Amino acid sequence: MGLFTKAKPTETTQKLKESYFTASQGQLIRARFKSNRTAMVAGWALTIMILTGLFAPFLSPYAPSMAGRDKQYVNGPPQIPKFWDENGFSLRPFVYATKRHRSMKTNFRWMIEEVREKRYYVQFFVEGWQYSFIDLNWDLPGELFDVDIETLTFKTHLFGTDRGGLHLFGTDNSGKDIYSRTLHAIYTSLAVGSLGVFIAFVLALVIGGVAGYFGGWIDSVLQMITDAVRTIPPIPLFMALAAFMPDEWSAETRFFFIASILGLIGWPTLARRIRTHLLSERSQEYVLAAQLCGASSGHIIRKHLLPSFTSYIIVDLMITFPYMVRSETALSFIGLGLVDPVNSLGALMQNVSKADVLLNYQWYFIPVIFFIAFVLAFVFVGDGLRDASDPYSNVKK
User: Fold this and answer.
1) What do you get for the CA distance between the two ends of the chain, in Å?
2) Which of 7, 151, 219, 338 has the highest CB neighbour number within 10 Å of its CB?
3) Residue 362 carries which DSSP code?
4) What are the 10-residue block averages of pLDDT along the chain, 397 residues in total?
């Protein structure tokens, strides 16, 4: 009989069950997200790329817009630091000196050759070009919106060389360091996506909240506006706007213009989701109780209705972000968005569309790899958050 006695739950199992039933919604979402290995790996990768973009000036040995710094290393291949070669072992990483010459084997095209007898040693925390972590130098139309603020200015960089140069991702046809440009491009894409998502988020909350809470003719009018915005084809719209933008506009003006347009056409999907949720929640008892207590419509929407939908809003924003970045990159790639001297992933990808690059300068594709990893990381994190926010996502059907 003792063999068939049901085992009593251990104290640890009992505590786990109690913690599960007493956990808040945020704790449950966090626990379910951690159980998704793909989302966790993507989350760490995304965190690293975001930090890389934020600290791009410190991590970049050279200014991203500095052209022709080393005239002997134009269209130069990536330089990988080494610790040993045929000349012996070194405790300090090093790269070789280079020389530029024409070769008959390549139809007299300029070639970069290593001088293996000369070593340039890599140093850490070196002094270089000056940068500011908060550099708000905006030259927008009109004097009212002009901003010129520079704080947290430094000259220290993570690494450099005692002589010559170190180009981890190589250089382009003007001598600019592709590594530095890639890191700054990640920051620019983050800034464009953040501004576009913020504009879309505010519009979706206002329009979706008003339409879902009041309903009736207000809902009908706002839904007609939403459907009209959704039917606007983005590419013809941006082609028309590109023809409208003056050539004398500064890089900052183009940046804010592109980000604002992406936000103005990216809000309908989230607005419809908020409207659908509020239509189903506005007749609940807690909403009626708040109305009987004299609460205003704005207070009920902000304090009662939207918090019940917060997790879904966050998930939607995470999923929307990569589409904002992708749209900016696509527009810059076809010449309708940000262009040089702005360092964006789309502007860097313009260089890979040439046949000469595909045949001879394959390191130009390195920013493309970062763009793919950046978008995929956001997509996987968004999918993980969406599954974690659904309490029935782990239920087997």
Assistant:
1) 36
2) 338
3) G
4) 51 61 69 87 92 91 78 84 84 86 67 82 88 68 59 86 84 86 88 86 87 85 89 79 73 76 85 84 81 82 76 77 80 71 77 77 88 88 80 50
Cα separation, 262 vs 189, whole angstroms: 12
Angle 233-262-145 (CA atoms, 0-180°, nearest 5)? 135
pLDDT at position 148 is 61
Residue 58 is predicted with a pLDDT of 92
Q: Which amino acid is at 39?
A: A
SS (H, E, C) 127-164: EEEEEEEEEEEECCCCCCCCEEEEEEEEEEEEEEECCC
Q: What is the pTM of this model?
A: 0.79
Distance CA 231, CA 242 (A): 20
Residue 89 phi/psi, 5-degree rounding, is -95, 150
Rg, the chain, Cα only: 27
Q: Which two tokens stand for residue 158?
A: 């993570």
Please give the Cα distance from 109 to 123 (Å, whole number).
Answer: 33
Domain 183-389 top-level CATH class: mainly alpha
Residues 387 and 312: beta-carbon distance below 8 Å: no
Domain ranges of the chain: 79-166, 183-389
Which sign does the torsion angle of CA 245, 246, 249, 251 carry? Answer: positive
The pLDDT score that the predictor gives to residue 48 is: 92
